[in-house]
Amino acid sequence: MHAPIPLLEQLRDFDGSVDGYYAAGFELIPFGKGDGGWDPCPANPAFRSWLRDRLGLEAAEDPNEIVRAAGDELWDPFAAWIGPLIPDALSSRRSA
User: d(Cα 39, Cα 42) in Å, to the nearest integer?
Assistant: First the structure.
């Protein structure tokens, strides 16, 4: 079984046409499967307990709030970096 998404289908077809890795640290795995049956989905209780036990990380109650806070904190350095390269990127930021 695989995800019925056209661009992912093209990537899967490409993946099947090359030997070995075509990007460092990237590989496709069967939809819903992980290495040795491990499902990397963060909703997986074993994955969450591994994060907690090994890294001291707890699941965020509101991950979107964390992303918004990081965006607010890092917007100025990001804008200084990306502005000269892609000026239109700065005008695309939505107001909070």
Answer: 8
Q: Does the reported pTM lie above 0.90? A: no
Question: Which token pair is 72?
Answer: 């607010």
Determine the distance from the C-alpha atom of residue 65 to the mean position of all C-alpha atoms in its chain, rounded to a whole number.
17
d(CA 20, CA 6): 23
Q: Is 8 exposed, middle or buried (0-12, 13-18, 19+ CB in 10 A)?
A: middle
Q: What is the mean pLDDT of each run of 10 residues along the chain (96 residues)?
A: 70 82 71 54 69 78 87 91 87 59
Q: What whole-number distance in Å separates Cα of residue 2 and Cα of residue 8? A: 9
* Contact predicate 9/1, CB 8 Å: no
Query: What pLDDT does residue 96 have?
Result: 43
